Automatic annotation (TrEMBL):
Descriptive protein name: L-seryl-tRNA(Sec) selenium transferase
Domain L-seryl-tRNA selenium transferase N-terminal, residue spans: 9-48
Record function comment: Converts seryl-tRNA(Sec) to selenocysteinyl-tRNA(Sec) required for selenoprotein biosynthesis.
Cofactor(s) for this UniProt protein: pyridoxal 5'-phosphate
Organism, scientific name: Luteibacter pinisoli
E.C. no: 2.9.1.1
Gene3D superfamilies, alphabetized: 3.90.1150.180, Type I PLP-dependent aspartate aminotransferase-like (Major domain)
């Protein structure tokens, strides 16, 4: 080791000296003593290794503080916001539905203040957690009673466990779904303690198949919305109304798992018409389950609506306590459901419906507006064009229906590897930009970029160049 290096090593300040340097004051203020000390230690270790390796590096306290600051700043929150330009509106890996402002405000209030979660303000005594959303759900679905749990997977689990523990759960072979995140109907039935009784075939199941399967051992009949796939061609299924009659004849409830489930007709938002929860209730199912954060546009939740008797049994199941939702989400759920009382303005207020309802023309105009600004941020190794693309609803909802959309298509003039590098760099931005690489281009579908966010989007891209 050269003399100059050993002397530099000797000049490395002590941790306490760096902490006492005037430059460290702001760091201590922002991050606290523990994190700042840790970062300074890391910076000193790095400087020591560099010097031992023969490199020259600055060793004044101010230099070490500078390095420590970079280390602290390089730890952004793991759950920080991203730009979802994948074209999938309800992207499960990006957190599905964005909440309406009213729901955000309600959640913030519930975090900041005590709330009458299980307190009856009229009587001054103990109240019920479900009361806050029960009446709204009854009003919006026409069901006699309702309850809410952690997510729809929990709703299905709870229904099966309540009515088919140690008994048979009758289901068509065409409806044994798997959805993302390892939710597989046979496994859920097993964990709920139900004996799965498969009827029919993959493509065709008839009323007689159900009738023959129901016996004294049967606990419930189940119908499952095949959310994320379609069986086409030579097919037959038994509709819910007929299944209700079959279940009634057997003296057991029918559980209809709608998956996404919607409280309003979505055809006005460019989405294919699907049965609403109200229709499923009208068909007579004893229990109907659906998600809070799919097409409904609220926080993660699982709703169970149905007859007073069935919901009563659900509420008496000790598992219900383990699957309940917290005050923050309950506040957001209540606020989201309230918006459904004014369906005419849902399209502006619920981000999910606002995004779904955007036309290709509007998105294309936005792409033209942003094209130059984006091109300026990425330099001349790439070309940026406006192209047509197809968005998806996502979360397994309506898998075959796409929405005509528009995108910025970024193509490298040279090697494809530069495209991968760009996608990687954009995932490391202060607010990561998530697009989709397809057909040799990085495709940024702008469906989920609100107009008000355009300046922030460009500023964020520009920050990547700094
Ligand atoms: C999405 C879905 C579920 C699970 O709902 P989560 O809210 O994601 O737990 C259950 N059943 C069907 C048919 C679904 O589409």
């Amino acid at each position: 080791m050269a003399d100059s290096d050993t002397s530099a090593l000797r000049r490395l300040p002590a941790v306490a000296t760096v902490l006492a340097a005037p430059e460290a004051a702001a760091l201590l203020e922002a991050h606290g003593r523990v994190a700042t000390t840790e970062a300074i230690r890391g910076a000193l270790d790095a400087a020591r290794s560099a010097l031992r390796g023969g490199a020259t590096t600055a060793v004044e306290p101010a230099d070490i503080v500078h390095e420590a600051r970079q280390r602290l700043d390089a730890q952004p929150a793991a759950l920080r916001p991203v730009f979802n330009l994948t074209g999938t509106v309800l992207h499960t890996n990006l957190g599905r539905a964005l909440l309406a402002e009213a729901a955000i405000d309600a959640a913030v209030d519930a975090m900041r203040h005590p709330v009458a979660l299980e307190f009856d303000l009229d009587e001054g005594g103990r109240g019920e957690r479900d009361d806050h959303v029960r009446d709204l759900l009854r009003e919006l679905t026409g069901a006699e009673d309702a309850t809410v749990v952690n997510n729809n997977a929990a709703a299905v689990l709870l229904c099966l466990n309540t009515f088919a523990l140690g008994r048979g759960a009758v289901i068509s072979r065409g409806e044994l779904i798997e959805i993302g995140g390892a939710f597989r109907m046979p496994d859920i039935m097993a964990r709920a303690g139900a004996d799965m009784v498969e009827v029919g075939t993959t493509n065709r199941t008839h009323a007689a198949d159900y009738r023959h399967a129901i016996d004294a051992h049967t606990g419930l009949v189940m119908k499952v919305h095949t959310s994320n796939y379609r069986i086409q061609g030579f097919t037959a299924e038994v509709d819910a109304r007929e299944l209700v009659a079959i279940a009634n004849a057997g003296g057991v409830p029918l559980l209809n798992d709608l998956g996404s489930g919607s409280l309003v007709d979505l055809s006005a938002y460019g989405v294919a018409r699907e049965a609403t929860v109200r229709q499923a209730v009208q068909e007579g199912a004893h229990l109907v389950t659906f998600s809070g954060d799919k097409l409904l546009g609220g926080p993660q939740a699982g709703f169970i609506v149905g007859t007073r008797e069935s919901i009563g049994a659900i509420n008496r199941n000790p598992l219900k306590r383990a699957l309940r939702v917290d005050k923050i989400r309950l506040a957001a759920i209540e606020a989201t459901l309230r918006l459904y009382r004014d369906p005419d303005r849902l399209g502006e207020r619920l981000p999910t419906l606002r995004f779904l309802g955007r036309t290709r023309d509007a998105i294309s105009a936005q792409a033209h507006r942003l094209r130059e600004g984006v091109a300026a941020c990425i330099g001349n190794a790439f070309g940026v064009d406006v192209g047509e693309c197809a968005s998806q609803v996502g979360s397994g909802a309506l898998p075959l229906d796409t929405l005509p959309s528009a995108a910025l298509m970024i193509r490298p003039h040279g090697s494809q590897r530069t495209l991968e590098a760009l996608a990687t760099a954009w995932r490391a931005l202060p607010r990561p930009v998530i697009g989709r690489i397809t057909e040799g281009a990085l495709q940024l579908d702008l469906r989920c970029l609100d107009e008000a966010d355009e300046p922030a989007f460009l500023a964020n891209l520009a920050a990547g160049n700094a």
